[in-house]
Specification:
CATH topology of the largest domain: Rossmann fold
CATH architecture of the largest domain: 3-Layer(aba) Sandwich
CATH class of the largest domain: Alpha Beta
Number of helices: 11
Helix content: 40-55%
Strand content: 15-25%
Bound molecules: D-glutamic acid
Low-confidence stretches: none
């Protein structure tokens, strides 16, 4: 039988994976979670591919040795589209659940055939993303929008800081295309940070579109992979969060506490 006390790791470069944690808790109520924010490496979006891959693999050597999880959810498209295959090859005994841009559901749902993918610069460059478009959206016009600044803006926004509307609009506006009397009708939020700002995007959008948030689909996939154990959590068992910098600021601590996460010490080499 699966060990009920083994936690599920939820991993992101920052706070974006909290959008996935929220859904995962709903679908896996009997499981304990450890949230890992690699804030020392944030933002992943601007890294070169090889150094980022090496960084993630080395970090996982330590994380897996320290926490011995039942499964790992890579709640970060930038990390998974780059290092997902290598993580699975390097750690074959661990179940990794990944995050990829939701291009397939967008292609199935669009009526206009104009779909935009809003992601980090890293994710839009990936061969993985191009392959998804070729495999599932060949009949659509897919615009890839790599935003330099939105992940940082989302970090500020969820901490309660002011983010100027025009700065957000500048990042999001390239998603909106009009062509031959048709308009973009779906924007894929292909970075787990972005759903935190969906309400701002919706308010600023020049016309209404569907904003696809992958969090629930990722949590459903995790539920399928992680055995259901008929045993409730112990009332004293708390989920916790680890920041790789070892020094989350006050607003990050407050945010994580709002998610019911206790802050633990950083993993060291
Ligand atoms: N939340 C991450 C993603 O899904 C990336 C943000 C970043 O580190 O640039 O892509």
């Amino acid at each position: 039988m699966a060990d009920v006390f083994k936690p599920i790791l939820i991993f992101d470069s920052g706070i974006g994976g909290l959008t996935v944690l929220r859904e995962a808790r709903v679908l896996m109520p009997e499981r304990g979670f450890i949230y890992i924010a690699d804030d020392a490496g944030f933002p992943y979006g601007g890294w070169e591919e090889e150094p980022l891959k090496a960084h993630i693999l080395a970090l996982f050597e330590r994380l897996l040795a320290t926490y011995d999880p039942e499964a790992v959810v890579i709640a970060c498209s930038t990390a998974f589209t780059l290092a997902g295959a290598d993580l699975r090859a390097r750690f074959p005994d661990i179940c990794f659940i990944g995050t990829v841009p939701a291009i397939k559901p967008a292609a199935e749902r669009t009526r206009s055939g104009l779909v935009s993918v809003l992601a980090t610069p890293g994710t839009v460059k990936r061969a993985y993303t191009r392959d998804l478009i070729q495999s599932f959206a060949a009949r659509c016009h897919v615009r890839l929008v790599g935003s330099e600044n939105l992940a940082r803006m989302a970090e500020s926004y969820v901490r309660g800081e002011t983010v100027a509307d025009d700065a957000v609009l500048h990042e999001v506006m390239p998603c909106f295309i009009e062509q031959d009397g048709r308009r973009t009708d779906i924007v894929v939020l292909a970075c787990t940070h972005y759903p935190f700002m969906a309400n701002v995007f919706r308010r600023l959008a020049p016309w209404p579109v569907d904003w696809i948030d992958p969090a629930e689909a990722i949590a459903r996939q995790a539920r399928r992979q992680v055995p259901l154990v008929d045993c409730a959590l112990h009332p004293d068992q708390h989920d916790f969060a680890v920041f790789t910098s070892g020094k989350p600021d006050f607003s990050a601590r407050r945010l994580l506490q709002g998610f019911g996460l206790q802050i633990a010490d950083a993993v060291t080499g």
